[in-house]
Amino acid sequence: MQLEEQRRLIPQKNVLNIAILFFILIALFWPVFPVLYHDWFKYNNNSHGILVPFISLYLIWRCRQSIDLKDAHISYAGLGILVVSLFLYVAGYGGRIDVLSRFAFVSAVIGIVLYNYGEKIFLSLAFPLLFLYFMIPVPVSIEAIVSFRLQLWVTQLSSAILSALSITVLQEGNILQFANCSLEVAEACSGIRSLTAYIMLGCLFGYMMRGSFIRRSMMVIIAVPLAFLVNILRVVGTGVLANYYGSHVARGFLHEFSGIAVFLVGFFLFFLIYRLIEEKDNSLIQ
What we know:
3-stranded antiparallel β-sheet; 3 strands; 2 domains; single chain; mainly alpha; 3% strand
C-alpha cells in the first residue's frame, strides 16, 4: 500500500515542482517579455510569434493521452540545459542581445521539463517545446541580408512576367519603371514577412502529418518557394494596377490589404497541399 501511495504522489509532486519552477522562471525572465510583445505587434514580420505559445499548448494537450506521469524521473541533462540557459540569459541581458535572452528563455523551459519529467516524457513533448523557438523574431541583421536578395529575385521575376503580359516595364535594381509611374519592390513585398510564418506552418503540418520523415519534411521544403511565389503574385498584381491606374494603388489600404490577401491565399494553398498528401497516404493505406 505504501508503494502504491508513493507512486500516486510522484506525479503530483512533479506537477507542483514544475509549477513553482515556471513561476520563478517567468519572474526571472520578466524583462524579456515587454520587448518581445512590442516586437510581435510593431513589426508585421514577427506577428505570427504571438500565436506560437498557444499552438504549443494545444499540441501538448493533444499529447496528454500518450503521457504517463508515473514514468517521470529527474534528468540531470535537463538541469545542465537550465544552468546553461541562465548563463546565456545573463550574457544576453547584460550585453543587450535580445535574441540571446529570448533563446535562453525557451531553452530554460525545455530544461525544466526535461529535468522534472525525464527523457521518455520529454520525447513525447519535444516538438511542442521546440516549436516555441518560432516565437523568437529573426534578428534584423539576418533578416536584412535575406530580404535584400529576395527583393532582387522577386523584382526580376515580376518584371519578366509583366513583360510577358505585354506591359512595358524596365527593372532598375528593386524598382519597376512603367510608362506613367514607378513601383518599388520594398522589403514587405520580398516575401520575408511570410517566409518565417510559412516555415512555421510547414513544421506544424509536417508534425501533424502521418508517414515517413522525408514526406513530412516536404511540408517545410515547400514553404520556401511558396512564400516566394505568392509575393511574386502580389507584385505582379500591383504592377498591373499601377500600370493602368498609377502608383497610388501601391500605397495605403490597398497595399496592406493585398499583403493580407496574398498571405491567406498562400495559407490556403499550403493547407490544400497538406490535405492532398494526407488523402494520398490514406488511399495507399486502404
